[in-house]
Design goal:
There is one protein chain. With about 120 residues, this protein is an alpha/beta fold. Helices cover about 30% and strands about 25% of the residues. A 5-stranded mixed β-sheet has the order 3-2-1-4-5. S-adenosylmethionine binds next to loops.
Length: about 120
Amino acid sequence: MLFRSSQVHRSTLVGPEGNVIGVDMTPETLAKATAGAAEAGATNVEFREGLAEKLSVDDGWADMVISNGVINLCPDKQAAFREIYRVLKPGGKMQIGDIIVQTAVPPAAKEDIDLWTG
Ligand SMILES: C[S@@+](CC[C@H](N)C(=O)[O-])C[C@H]1O[C@@H](n2cnc3c(N)ncnc32)[C@H](O)[C@@H]1O
């Protein structure tokens, strides 16, 4: 998700003139997010289908990029981080909630699909 705001309020993440763009590659997730935004009465949110590695967002558009559970699924993580850097304004912030591994994953574990799909 990408946030742009001219004024960040304490009570809401983006101010009255702020905008949010939600990006995901699957129609199912976008449909769920769209329903959630409608339920919340959010009118300043737009959803776009696309890849984290190639965001359909202008350079320097966002004050903040938030990603939850996506980067670990990106085959090209460096491209995803390059895109975050590209769309952020200078001094913008990113917040990432994700899974990291701090030790090497053994080849047998990498090939065991059940370990990756939960
Ligand atoms: C664990 S879900 C998290 C969904 C959402 N961010 C949330 O917080 O509820 C992971 C999501 O990552 C999306 N995803 C995986 N790889 C992606 C990529 N390369 N670009 C965009 N979305 C991706 C999947 O479609 C899925 O909706």
